[in-house]
From TrEMBL:
Enzyme Commission no: 3.4.16.-
PANTHER family in the cross-refs: SERINE CARBOXYPEPTIDASE-LIKE 7 ISOFORM X1, SERINE PROTEASE FAMILY S10 SERINE CARBOXYPEPTIDASE
Name the UniProt record assigns to this protein: Carboxypeptidase
Signal sequence range: 1-21
Annotated organism of origin: Fraxinus pennsylvanica
Protein family (similarity comment): Belongs to the peptidase S10 family.
Keywords: Carboxypeptidase, Hydrolase, Protease, Secreted, Signal
Keyword match Disulfide bond: no
Protein origin, superkingdom: Eukaryota
Family annotation (PROSITE patterns): CARBOXYPEPT_SER_SER
Amino acid sequence: MNWIGLYGLLLLLLLFKNGASQAIIKTLPGYEGTLPFKLETGYIGVGDNDEVQLFYYFIESENNYKTDPLVLWMMGGPGCSGLFNIFFDIGPLTFDVENFDGSLPSILLNPNSWTKVANIIFIDAPVGTGFSYANNSQGYSSSDTKSAKDIYTFLRKWLLNHPMFIKNRLYVAGESYAGKLTPMVSMEILQGNEARLQPQMSFQGYIIGNGLTDTNIDFNARIPYAHRMALISDEYYESAKISCDEKYYNRDPNNVQCANALQRIQECLSNINQVRILDENCGGTATKLDEYFRWHHTFRGDNSIDNLLLPTAKQECQNIFDVSDYWGNDPAVQEALYIRKGMITRWETCSVGISYEENVDGALEYHKILIKKGYDALVYNADQDMAAPYMGPLTWFRILNLTIDDNWKPWLVNGQVAGYTQRYKKNDFRLTFVTIKGAGHIASWLVLSA
C-alpha cells in the first residue's frame, strides 16, 4: 500500500472512530443545475458510544472560506431542523412557495444569504430533530444541559474532521428557543478551551435572534409589548399591571383579579398572529407550526394566558411547512442529501414529539460569565414579533448592568430605516442590540417575501 492509500485509510478510520460521515452535494431535487456554493451534509456521533447521530448541513462561504468566520447555527423549538434556517431564514435557498402545487417544490436562490460572508454549520439538534437520530430508545431523551454538551461535542468532532476551519473566527448563533442554548454552548466552548481540549477553538462571541433567554423575562414581556403596540388599551394594561404586580407569566394562580384582567387581554389578542402581528390570522386555521406551539405550551403546562397567541406562520395563509415537509420526505431528496435509510420514519420541519426536558429556566448566569471574559455579542429582535418581544432583551440588559455605549439610533438600507441599534458595554464586553423594522419571529421572512 502506498502512502496516499495509507493516509486515506487512516482518515477513514478517524472518521469512523468519531462516528462521522460526510458528503458533498452538487445538485438538489427542485433546483435547476449545479448549486453555486459548496454544500456538505453528514452525521457526527455524540454521547456514549456515539449513540446519538447528529445531522448537519455545512455551507461554505461564497466569499472567502479561508478567512471568513465560521458560524454554528442552531434553530429553536426545541425540535426545528437546520433546514428551516437554510430555506426560510438566512440560508442561500428558498422554496417557490407561491407556486407550490403539492408536487416537488421548486428551489430558488436567496440573494440575501448570510453565506455570502460566512461559513455556516446548520445543525439538526437536539436528537430527534430533522434527520438526527439515536441508535436506541434511551438515546432519544435530551434536555437543555445535555443538548448543549452534545452540540459542543459535535462541534469539536466537526472541527477535527475539518481542520482547515480551526483557525477561523468562531461564532455560536441561535434563534428562538435556541437563544437560551447559545450562551450554554458558548460556555462549553470556553470551558473546553480553558481545559486545553483539542481543538482549541477561535471563539469570538455569539449571536441571538428573536431568542429566549429567560422564560419569566421574555414571556412576561408580551403584555407590555401588546400595550406598546396598541393591541390593548391603557385601562386593560394598567388593570393587569396593578392586579398581577407585573407578573403575568408564572403568576399566582389564586389571584382572581389578575386572572380576570388577563382574560380581557386574551380576548383582545386571541386573533392576533403572534409571530408577526401584521400578518393575517387566516381564520384560525391551524398550521403545523401552530400545532407545534400548541403542543409545546400544553406540554409545558403553562397557564391559559400563555397560550393565547398561537402563531400561524403563514405567508398569505399558505402553510410553508407543507412545502418543506413534502420536500424533506421525498426519497430522491433524502438520497441526494445522503440520509441513512431506515433511521427515521417521517421527516418534519419541526418535530413535536421529541423527548426533551427544559431544565434551565434562564441563561443569565451564562451571560454573566461570558461578559466577564469580554466576548462580543449580537442580539437582534424583530419589532413585529410578540412570541419573543424585543422588550425582553432590553430587560435583561438592565439586569446585567450593561452600560449604554452608543445610544438608540436608526440603521438604514438604501436610505430607508430598517430598524434601530443600541450598543452596550461592560469592561471589555461589547453587545450590539438591533431591531428589525416590520419583521416577525423569523426576521428573514420579510426579506424573502419582499
